[in-house]
Automatic annotation (TrEMBL):
<comment type="similarity">
    <text>Belongs to the glycogen phosphorylase family.</text>
</comment>
<keyword id="KW-0808">Transferase</keyword>
<comment type="function">
    <text>Phosphorylase is an important allosteric enzyme in carbohydrate metabolism. Enzymes from different sources differ in their regulatory mechanisms and in their natural substrates. However, all known phosphorylases share catalytic and structural properties.</text>
</comment>
<dbReference type="InterPro" id="IPR000811">
    <property type="entry name" value="Glyco_trans_35"/>
</dbReference>
<dbReference type="InterPro" id="IPR035090">
    <property type="entry name" value="Pyridoxal_P_attach_site"/>
</dbReference>
<dbReference type="GO" id="GO:0005980">
    <property type="term" value="P:glycogen catabolic process"/>
</dbReference>
<dbReference type="GO" id="GO:0030170">
    <property type="term" value="F:pyridoxal phosphate binding"/>
</dbReference>
<protein>
    <recommendedName>
        <fullName>Alpha-1,4 glucan phosphorylase</fullName>
        <ecNumber>2.4.1.1</ecNumber>
    </recommendedName>
</protein>
<dbReference type="Pfam" id="PF00343">
    <property type="entry name" value="Phosphorylase"/>
</dbReference>
<dbReference type="InterPro" id="IPR011833">
    <property type="entry name" value="Glycg_phsphrylas"/>
</dbReference>
<keyword id="KW-0119">Carbohydrate metabolism</keyword>
<comment type="function">
    <text>Allosteric enzyme that catalyzes the rate-limiting step in glycogen catabolism, the phosphorolytic cleavage of glycogen to produce glucose-1-phosphate, and plays a central role in maintaining cellular and organismal glucose homeostasis.</text>
</comment>
<keyword id="KW-0321">Glycogen metabolism</keyword>
<keyword id="KW-0328">Glycosyltransferase</keyword>
<dbReference type="GO" id="GO:0005737">
    <property type="term" value="C:cytoplasm"/>
</dbReference>
<dbReference type="GO" id="GO:0008184">
    <property type="term" value="F:glycogen phosphorylase activity"/>
</dbReference>
<keyword id="KW-0021">Allosteric enzyme</keyword>
């Protein structure tokens, strides 16, 4: 489409020839009321809290739009090399409060609502929490977008605007029930619809190889249409886009039947493919959904790569400059089809020779691995790919051939090695190994914590590390202090402002170091204890209101919140709870430390063991919470429908952070960082980022237990037998038997038999005793508040390293070679 902007209009943004309300409370109030009346068409006397929220979000969006548009102008003017972050998941959390804090508008909006007789905090609670992700990987992408904007890095996030996010979890009779998550139902004032930004995405059909380049004649086409979400930097001035694609249902045609005039058949295909942007897949999706998942992945990357090229051609007139201008980052293997997609466009549309296109790809792509678990490593059947993406499969074969003949064979590797590194896995069902393709095409491949990156090189990618040792690197994950302190824990933010002399820590988290001087100061310990207590009261009120369970804020809050998965060992947490329960009943008059065990998390809907674990937690909660003999010494709470917003409520209230995965299985973990940053102590294994947290906070300030990776591997090698541990530990045996024989499920005594008597793949029983001992150390320290709060302060003081700002600086320097927008490049304010 030709650009039709008249010359006179071209400089409006830079000359500020328009009205933008200066954000004082009065103008904010007027702006909110204006939006309510003229944008939403609602009479203020009829407005619901959700209406007020929408109006306020429009008002707040106005105030970041200028930054958003001028950021784009700066990038174009200075031809800023840009990173495009491709991810199937973004767990952004609520946008409204975050944007007010990042733009220093919280006070003005609070006052404006006060004048309207409303309360900002209540209004903010109306916002739906877009759950466009499963867990850690999606939330990491969101923390990274916040840091990218705040560090002024030219960056665009690309994802899918799933109509229904992750399901809504309800707990009925202890069981997880999945309900649709209607996050878009109340409108989404935060996103700009971009109906003109649309790209066709094709599927199926045939490949005519009688020409060069071969001609792909697709059978179906669907349009990807963009929605842009503003990602505001902390401190204003810069705002980057998160571009989310929807499938435009009206545009899909079965081309063949449409051409034959068969309107109804073409509509049928449309209905079927409507689902492309409908749901987010849980991470262990069944075979039924696999084809749709593959389509979603291609839909994301095809639209994004086309958009990236279009953006490049706005700045440069040649495709050949693409590698200087563009870095594309692959968040796990999910967007790896971007590689053959870019190859296809370069070869088929721009007529580049294969070698030249391939050299460009290797400069452009980089890839992060987020898991070593074999079941999460994506492989697509060659047959399915041949059906759906014949040209891409053809290109993958060529890449594989080029790799084997030009890279592997010349180095003298044998056939067995070649079989192992081939992108195509031979066997009954030939499969495309997406992680292999990612490694072969990328100039850098990173793991997400030191131990994980080391294991990645020594196990999963060992053969590739022999071929290209310089390709592999580590970038330890981080979390944004804006979301995880300023938004989630404002009282802690005030505490830090006070003792660190201002809010500089928010963009330079190493300033927390200065707390180290203060950790022995009793007044400061008390002040922090009060901050923690207030957060515990807030959580206790929520649990009372939503679940009708009374908990005591003076008890130790012991928290495990994350996806429910066997390797994360929620069921080992349960073993400890039951063991403690038994001990209390055996010795009721001992001086027990009261504890509240808080758990939350979703189980993938097809993952039975995880769902059983949720049910077990709820059965035990019901049983123990109603046993008068334990009084208030143990309470167990499973909070339904875990989300970013719930994490913001729970994490500040935690005393103890449970990070108890089997060593070698958790790539990094990021909630471990959020907890420690909020002054919780960690009980954890030597796994993921726990190892680096230990190094930063010191062994006296963390409870480390359990087998090391080496010990775990030795146990596996020697044929791990859970009964070696159960039979040698009578207290453990008692716990296992109680659960397995129905002590907590009297209506169905065998309900948990299988859960307890399986092969214990993640060695809960091997680590049980060491875990229980570590828990005793926790009680002991908690009894000495001075020591406990000192340790909590030491944890906070040494968490600077775990800011996602540091992670992003590492990526920019080591992987993307990207420079932020400089002070000089920023527009001068009028
Ligand atoms: C796999 C699949 C397979 C196909 C269906 C959809 C799907 C979705 C997710 C996954 C794998 C998830 C990998 C993941 O979430 N890894 C987590 O990444 C965090 C950020 O790096 C890290 O802190 C966690 O330790 C790691 O489990």
């Amino acid at each position: 489409m030709a650009k039709t902007t008249p010359t006179a209009a071209k400089n409006l943004l830079t000359t500020y020839d328009y009205i933008n309300p200066k954000p004082d409370a009065e103008l904010v109030r007027k702006s909110i009321v204006y939006k309510l009346i003229f944008i939403l068409g609602i009479d203020p006397k009829d407005a619901t809290p959700a209406d007020w929220l929408n109006a306020a979000m429009f008002a707040a969006r106005d105030l970041s739009t200028e930054n958003f548009l001028s950021t784009r102008q700066i990038h174009e003017k200075f031809k800023k090399r840009t990173v495009y972050y491709l991810s199937m998941e973004f767990l952004m959390g609520r946008a409204f409060t975050n944007s007010l804090i990042n733009q220093d508008l919280y006070g003005a909006f609070e006052q404006a609502f006060k004048e309207l007789g409303l309360n900002l905090a209540d209004i903010s609670e109306q916002e739906a929490d877009p759950a466009l992700g499963n867990g850690g990987l999606g939330r990491l992408a969101a923390c990274f977008l916040d840091s990218l904007a705040t560090l002024r890095v030219p960056a665009v996030g690309y994802g899918i605007r799933y109509q229904y996010g992750m399901f809504k979890q309800e707990i009925v009779d202890g069981k997880q029930i999945e309900k649709p998550d209607l996050w878009l139902d109340n409108g989404m004032a935060w996103q700009f619809a971009r109906p003109a930004k649309r790209f066709p995405v094709s599927f199926g059909g045939t490949l005519d190889t009688s020409h060069y380049p071969p001609r792909w004649k697709p059978a179906e086409q669907i349009n990807a249409v963009a929605y842009d979400e503003i990602v505001p930097a902390f401190g204003g001035q810069i705002a980057n886009p998160l571009r989310l694609w929807t499938a435009h249902t009206g545009d899909l045609f079965n081309l063949a039947s449409f051409n034959e005039g068969d309107y109804f058949s073409s509509m049928e295909a449309q209905m079927k493919n409507e689902t492309i942007a409908n749901v987010l897949y849980p991470n262990d999706a069944t075979a039924v959904g696999r084809e749709l998942r593959l389509k979603q992945e291609y839909f994301l990357v095809s639209a994004s790569v086309q958009d990236i090229i279009a953006r490049h051609l706005c700045r440069y007139d040649s495709i050949h400059t693409l590698p200087e201008d563009v870095a594309i980052h692959l968040n796990d293997t999910h967007p790896v089809l971007a590689i053959p997609e870019l190859m296809r466009i370069l070869i088929d549309d721009y007529y580049l020779p294969f070698d030249q296109a391939w050299a460009m790809c290797q400069k452009i792509f980089s890839y992060t691995n987020h898991t070593l678990m074999s079941e999460a490593l994506e492989k697509w059947s060659v047959d399915m790919m041949a059906q759906l993406l014949p040209r891409h499969l053809d290109i993958i074969y060529k890449i594989n051939h080029h790799f084997i003949e030009n890279v592997v064979r010349p180095q003298g590797y044998d056939d067995d090695f070649i079989r192992r590194v081939s992108i195509i896995e031979e066997g009954e069902q030939r499969q495309v190994r997406m992680a292999w393709l990612a490694v072969i095409a990328s100039h850098k491949v990173n793991g997400v914590a030191k131990i994980h990156s080391d294991l990645m090189v020594s196990s999963l990618f060992a053969d590739f590390a022999a071929l290209f040792p310089e390709r592999f690197t580590n970038v330890t994950n981080g979390v944004t202090p804006r979301r995880w302190i300023a938004v989630a824990n404002p009282k802690l933010a005030r505490f830090l402002d006070k003792h660190l002399g201002g809010s500089g820590w928010l963009t330079d988290l190493n300033q927390l170091n200065q707390l180290n001087k203060l950790v022995d100061n009793k007044d400061i310990q008390n002040e922090f204890a009060n901050v923690k207590h207030a957060a515990k009261v807030r959580l206790a009120e929520y649990i009372q209101r939503e679940m009708n369970i009374t908990i005591n804020p003076n008890a130790l809050f012991d928290v495990q919140i994350k996806r429910i998965h066997a390797y994360k060992r929620q069921s080992m947490n349960v073993l400890h709870i039951v063991h403690r329960y038994n001990q209390i009943l055996n010795n009721p008059n001992a001086d027990w430390q009261p504890r509240v065990f808080i758990l939350a998390g979703k189980a993938a809907s097809s993952y039975n063991e995880a769902k059983q674990t949720i049910r077990l937690i709820n059965d035990i909660a019901y049983f123990i919470n109603h046993d008068e003999r334990v009084r208030d010494l143990i309470k167990v709470v499973f909070i339904p429908n875990y989300s970013v917003s719930l994490a913001e409520l729970i994490i500040p209230a935690a005393d103890l952070s449970e990070q108890i995965s089997l060593a070698g299985k958790e790539a990094s973990g990021t909630s471990n960082m959020k907890f420690a940053l909020n002054g919780a102590l960690t009980i954890g294994t030597l796994d993921g980022a726990n190892v680096e947290i230990l190094q930063h906070v010191g062994a006296e300030n963390i409870f480390i237990f359990g087998n090391t990776v080496e010990q775990v591997q030795t146990l596996y090698r020697n044929g791990y037998n859970p009964y070696d541990f159960i039979d040698n530990d009578p207290e453990l045996a008692q716990v296992v038997n109680q659960i397995a024989q129905g002590a907590f499920s009297p209506d169905e005594p065998h309900r948990y038999h299988k859960l307890m008597h399986n092969r214990d793949e993640f060695q809960r029983y091997a680590d049980f005793r060491s875990y229980v001992n570590a828990q005793a150390q926790v009680d002991k320290l908690y009894r000495q508040p001075e020591k406990w709060y000192r340790a909590a302060l030491v944890n906070m003081a040494n968490m600077g390293y775990f800011s996602s700002d540091r992670s992003i600086e590492d990526y920019c320097r080591e992987i993307w070679r990207i420079e932020p927008v400089s002070e000089q490049e920023l527009p001068r304010l009028a």
